[in-house]
Amino acid sequence: MRLAAPSPTLAEHARYPWFVLGTVCLGTFMGSIDLSGINATFPILASAFDTTVPVIGWVTLAHMITSTTCMTISGRLADLVGRKRVYAAGLLVVLGGFLLTATAQSLGWLIAARVVTGLGASMAVANSVALIGATFPANRRGTAIGAMETTVAIGLAIGPILGGLLADWLGWRAVFLMSWPPGLVAVALGLTVLREPERQGPPESFDFLGAATFAGGMVSILLGLTTGVSLGWGSPFVLGALGLGLALLVLFVPIERRVRHPMIALSLFSHPVFAASNLAKVGCYLSLMAAMFLAPFYFQRALGLGPSQIGLAMLPFPIGLAVSSLIMGPLSDRVGWRVIAPTGMGIAAVGCLLLTRLDPAVGLAATFPALVILIFGLGSFISPNDSAIVGAAPRDKLGVAGGILAMTRSLGMIVGIALAGTILGARQPVYLAGGLDETAAFVEAFHDVFRFTTAACILAALASLVGGGRRR
After folding, report:
1. pLDDT attached to residue 200
2. What is the largest CA-CA distance in the chain?
3. Which of 114, 127, 129, 298 has the smallest number of Cβ neighbours within 10 A?
4. Quick check: 327 and 162 in contact, CB under 8 A?
């Protein structure tokens, strides 16, 4: 299929970069309402397929593992064949996956369909930041990325509400089709608005051996991380998966050094800003997901809130991310990411520290300020840090750089959930054995989790200071 090029009038329009941003934001909005909206269907899906909620959790895990694994591969493919092609094709694959999911007749079918959506999401998400980075100048990049992050936050806020309403009115299958209208518009805009720049230099080949080794290593590690809490970190399966994954990733390095056109240009990590900013990103999303994962349990077990109250109490997460991204993205364009990014993680560390001192007797009056400070700090970090990563990558490597950026984000999320569950599960029995009741033991273990995330935020703030002082 020959892809349509934007008209010369549109491509040369002074506001063309903003047309690109709108196109990318619509695609990311589609993905975010899908991921968050599915959570509202878990109880219904468990009943429909006569299984347990933990098993139904693989509907989300299958998507996350596939997308995380394929992010970097999709980014490299985009550098070779074109970001517009891969982005638009990814959206089409996602829409196909939605259709397969909505028509699923068995649990296996359902999970396999989510693997398809994960593959498509990796193709689209890996190229979203790359498309922005290739279109916007450095002094506007933070604003653009901030707008995209705000779109994601809005989708995360709307998804559960819309998903719950559709599941109640039309059944669970309708939830997987709610992203079709924005998805179709996003595909049409992607094919007409986005332009494919001419490739400079001779054609390069795709590193199939490197891609297979990397994918195998990532799948094994992610399977180990996602099953460690339920099976136990000492179980043969978990240890075998983690060991195999580490071995494959170690083998991946010499493979990449020997091939002429590696899947991942390891030279990217020789740039201190690129390496340190990706490391800091893991710490950011680790802390975010630990809070998002444990906050509902704290609201229920420590404060005694009901489901609808918990839903309202979780609103600081999307609202805080949206507001901070809108404010700090443009601000970072003016004062530089080096000031905003570490400051944001410092603020997040204060929020985590406040969470370690929560007293259920005080109620939401203490919980809300701590969460708002944490989320505002993390949201202040994300856009400037992403801008730094994109600015540190050569233009011909923006695809793979965007894939690495998206991969570290997903990896941080998965590690955050795994570590939060592990620390909580390990520390709560200790407090119970010490004579505390179940609620008090949970609260103390909750505090221990955020002592860890406080340290993670501080380390991320320090990492974001690494590198040269020049803005790019």
Report:
1. 63
2. 73
3. 298
4. no
Q: Tokens 């936050």 appear where?
A: 153
Q: How far is CA 92 from the centre of its chain?
A: 20
Instruction: Examine domains 1-194 and 271-472 and report if their fold is the same.
Output: yes
* Contact of 399 with 83, CB cutoff 8 Å: yes
Q: Which CATH superfamily is domain 1-194 in?
A: MFS general substrate transporter like domains (1.20.1250.20)
**Sequence-ordered list of residues with C-beta below 8 angstroms from that of 119, at least 6 positions apart, any chain:** 66, 67, 70, 93, 97
Domains of the chain: which residue ranges?
Answer: 1-194, 210-258, 271-472
User: What architecture is domain 271-472?
Assistant: Up-down Bundle (1.20)
C-alpha distances out from residue 317 to 268, 348, 351, 368, Å: 32, 13, 13, 10
Q: Report the length, in residues, of the chain.
A: 472
pLDDT given at position 391? 84
Whole-number pLDDT of residue 177: 87
Closest CA to 345 of 295, 321, 380: 380
Cβ pair 438, 432 in contact under 8 A: yes
Q: Which residue has the tokens 């059944």?
A: 171
CA distance 355 to 290: 12
Q: Is 106 exposed, middle or buried (0-12, 13-18, 19+ CB in 10 A)?
A: exposed
Q: Which residue in 135, 157, 188, 214 sits closest to 37, CA to CA?
A: 157
pLDDT of residue 221: 92
Q: Where are the alpha helices (H) located in 39-106, listed in sequence order?
A: 42-48, 53-56, 58-81, 83-102
Q: Are 128 and 31 in contact (CB under 8 A)?
A: no
pLDDT at 37: 79
pTM across the whole model:
0.84
How many CA atoms lie less than 13 Å away from 124 in the CB half-sphere?
29
Average pLDDT along the chain, 472 residues, taken 10 residues at a time: 54 76 90 79 81 78 89 88 90 94 92 94 88 84 83 80 82 87 90 77 81 93 86 92 95 90 86 91 92 87 81 81 85 84 95 94 87 93 88 82 86 88 90 91 94 96 71 42
**285, containing H or E segment:** helix 272-297
Amino acid type, 28: T
- DSSP letter, residue 2: P
